[in-house]
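Record type: monomer structure entry
Structure origin: computed from sequence
Chain ID: A
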Amino acid sequence: MRFLSHEDPETRALVYIPLVVRRRLDECGVRVSLSQWQQLPLALRGAVALMATGTDAPDVFRAALAWMLTATVAPPAMLEVRVVPTPWQDPIPPSSLADALREAGINPDVWGTMDTDTRFGLLHALKHRARHPDDFLAILRAVYPQRS
């Protein structure tokens, strides 16, 4: 399993959905609520987290997740499949992220050196910055400790 360095102990214990799992869910166009996630037995949450870092095709990941949810979540949960943009896969950062990086004193060109999970984590933290203002800076500190 892979976790981003800023993720808290509850996320590492799979109480909450790790960012690598969120990224994979988005890439596969699947929405899983926190309630659904927490109803999955811990062993299955671990399996999903491992699958999220694998190379299975999206339809394989969706099928395995659908089986897990229908077999264990009460009432049986159906997967909500949707098309989701994947800006973390783009070669240049979205302008809102580039602006936030500049505000933090970081050249947006570093986007090209970041791995996919770090890119996703930054975008996720930026999106939720109003509710969780420290997450964005925590990721930046983890990636660029000299900026702390």
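Annotation 1: Residues 87-147 form one domain.
Annotation 2: The first helix runs from residue 9 to 12.
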